[in-house]
Amino acid sequence: MVVEDAVTNEGYETTPHMLLYHCNLGYPVLTLSVILFSLLLGGGLGSRFSQRWPVEAVRRPAMIAAFGVAAGSLLLLVILPALVNGTLGWDIRLRCALTMACLAPLGFLMGMPFPSGLRILGARTPTLIPWMWGVNGLTSVIGSVGAMVLAKLAGFTNVLIVGAALYALAAVLVAGLGGTRGEPDVATPAMPEE
């Protein structure tokens, strides 16, 4: 579970940086603000939405969300250049709204795997939750710096592809978290004896 979080967080850190290159609104600060607002708003809503499933059933939605981020990132990679070029003459407010409409669903999906992982880990091994937060912090630093270095070496597009691949790997890791035959997905707490 901690490894799944590390992989998801690396993917999470690469995506906004690379979208900055692909979603150019003409003003770098405005572009970054719109991207972060869209992804954070969507991520917060996705995190909240992921709480609707009981912990025993949250693994599948988290896996689907991680695969969705991978597919959505690749889709944006294909459509954003044409979308940006096709809307250059539009009013900047409309371009910002269109960018938000494209990125918020991706943010929604990005917001689901980590809280779902926390819930699964909390049900299985609550003592590892502080480690998961530590890994999250470490991979945040490594992911953002690594994304910039890799962008310089391999290009922004390739880094977005790496981010999508990391989310696909996270989905595969989440899929492997299920119990084996006859075992539940998470440990069921024992009832206290009276």
Percent of residues in beta strands: under 5%
Q: End-to-end distance, in Å?
A: 33 Å
C-alpha Rg (nearest Å): 18 Å
Assembly type: single chain
Mean pLDDT over the residues? 82
Please give the domain count.
1
Outline the low-pLDDT stretches.
Answer: 179-192
What share of the residues lie within helices? over 70%
Order of helices and strands: HHHHHHH
Structural class: mainly alpha
What is the tally of helical segments?
Answer: 7
**How many runs of DSSP E, i.e. beta strands?**
0
Which CATH first-tier class would you pick?
A: Mainly Alpha
- Describe the sheet with the most strands: none
Could you please say which CATH topology applies here? Answer: Growth Hormone, Chain: A
Give the tags.
7 helices, mainly alpha, Growth Hormone, Chain: A, single chain, 194 residues
Question: What's the SSE blueprint?
Answer:
Elements: H1 2-22, H2 28-49, H3 59-86, H4 92-110, H5 113-124, H6 129-154, H7 156-175
Helix pairs in contact: 1-5, 1-6, 1-7, 2-4, 3-4, 3-5, 3-7, 6-7
